[in-house]
Amino acid sequence: MKNLLAFGPLVAVVLFSSAIHAQEKRPEFAEMYNKRHAKQKPVVGDTLDEVGLFDAAGKKFSTKNLKGKHTVLVFGCLT
Amino acid sequence: MRNVSGLETVYRDYQNKDVNFYYVYSNVQHPEINNYVAPHNIKEKLMHIAEFKRLSKSKMPWLADTMTQDLKKALRAAPNGEYVFDKNGKLIRKRFWSDPNTLRKDLEELIGKVDKITRVEDLPTRFKVEPRKIASGVVKPVKMPGGMIALVVEPQPDGKKTPYYVKLRAEMTNAILPRPKGGKYRPGSGKLFLGFYLDPIYKVHWNNKMRPIVVQIKQDGNVKLQKYQLTGPKVKEAADVDPRQFLLEIDTLEKTDFKKPLEITVAYAACDDAETFCLPVKQKYLVKFQRNRFGGTRPGVFMPKMFAKVWEFDKNKDGIITKDELPEGRVSLYIGHIDKNNDDKLDSQEIKEFLQMFNNGRGFDSDKNFGGR
Q: With contacts defined as CB-CB under 8 Å, which chain A residues touch B36?
């Protein structure tokens, strides 16, 4: 019991400082989603599979056509 | 979609610097916003893309994903995900939400800085839906219970190539659907939602002087439905564009065969706004007892709670909501949808335009006038 009383303040300080640390480190909401998403396959470093799509005119388009340049793909829709 | 103008500035600055830029249209993430619902075929996806380009004045090119969302599946892409690949097709950046400012930094690092940065105010892009002259907000939406999920809907083409002027969205109580991967199934009572939406791309309306929409439901999988024939409401206005929604009781049993879908036949008259045609249309759908992973979420499910009291975020009451005033969490993520000039501030015009996207253009001020959803 004596030991507990002796270490009590130390434990409290550790808990308090880790709470502050956790608060400082708390990621932004978007960052949290990004981190979770980053762990899902495909991860950075993986190569894009060949997938068939359509261009805006309705012609067939393959992702293999994207090679040779940097490519930015952004998913979206009318809403 | 978020950040259209911000992304357009990056596109304009880097399009001629050995970078491919594409939007990818996979699925409609928030059906009902501005009355848009999921396209039923590739032709309609392409029409949605054309509509987006017209309304946003964005020049960035689009690709249409297949109807089975093959690219979305391959990338396990987020609804507004952003992915950067190098010249060999290797993934070098991925983000759950598109972020034009971070993308610009990426490209500055990968390609180099541009001499003159395009600013949002230099662009004509400002996504704005044109108001329809036909009445809206005259048919009360159904009050949706919680715990509903989108079901897989398969249109059954009739060979006549009649457009899907009216589109079906189906939802059901998740708790009484079969559990995936062998989980224990518990039969019970729940709700089935069938919503029929006029697709704005066809510029058609309901002619309320004609017979209202009639829906027939057939099933042989041993589910019990409250009704097997549904008729749309009688509406005073001569014409309107409000969805026709039905909410039914549904009971599933131990012997229910979930592999047997519901067969839905819908009959309606499609009348175009220019008054050049008024066609009787009959179309069929299969509704599967299966969660539609790409069904998106109706904004009515989460938007009213987040934005009904949007002005309460304006802590200093100056009529402008800054990014710092928004609480951390989902609300702050939607700033990209609202902040059309990308200045990290929401002014009353931006908020007004955002809120008007909901509830058939009526917007919402509270849960109450949004049908309590």
A: 77-79
- Domain tally for chain A? 1
Which pLDDT score is estimated for B307? 65
The parent domain of residue A58 ranges over 2-66
Domain B148-291: CATH superfamily is Gamma-adaptin ear (GAE) domain (2.60.40.1230)
Q: What percent of chain B is predicted at pLDDT more than 70? A: 85
What separation in angstroms does the CA of B232 have from each of B224, B265, B360? 21, 14, 17
What confidence category does residue A17 fall into, taking pLDDT thresholds of 50, 70 and 90? very low
- Within-domain flag for A14: yes
Residue B214 · residue B234 · CB < 8 Å: no
Band the pLDDT of B143: cuts 50, 70, 90.
confident
Residue A77 domain-assigned? no
Nearest beta carbon to residue A49 from set B74, B95, B107: B74
CA–CA separation, B130 vs B215, rounded Å? 30
Check pLDDT > 60 for residue B271: yes
Classify residue A79: in a domain, yes or no: no
List all residues of chain A from 26 to 65 with a beta carbon under 8 Å from chain B: 28-30, 33-34, 36-38, 40-49, 51-58, 61, 63-64
Kindly tell me if the per-residue pLDDT of B270 is higher than 90: yes
CB < 8 Å to A63, chain B = 71, 89
Residue of B nearest to A42 (CA): B75
B282 contacts: CB under 8 Å, gap ≥ 6: B158, B265, B266, B267
- CB within 8 Å: B90 and A67: no
Candidate from B52, B61, B64 with C-beta closest to A78:
B52
Residue with tokens 């992973």: B293
CATH class of this structure's domain B4-122: alpha beta
In a domain, A78, yes or no: no
pLDDT category at B221 given cuts 50, 70, 90 is confident
**A76 touches B: beta carbon within 8 Å:** yes
Contacts of B76 in chain A (CB under 8 A): 40-42
CB distance B207 to B134 below 8 Å: no
Q: Which CATH class is domain B299-370?
A: mainly alpha
* Distance separating alpha carbons of residues B344 and B328, to the nearest angstrom: 14
The domain ranges of chain B are: 4-122, 148-291, 299-370
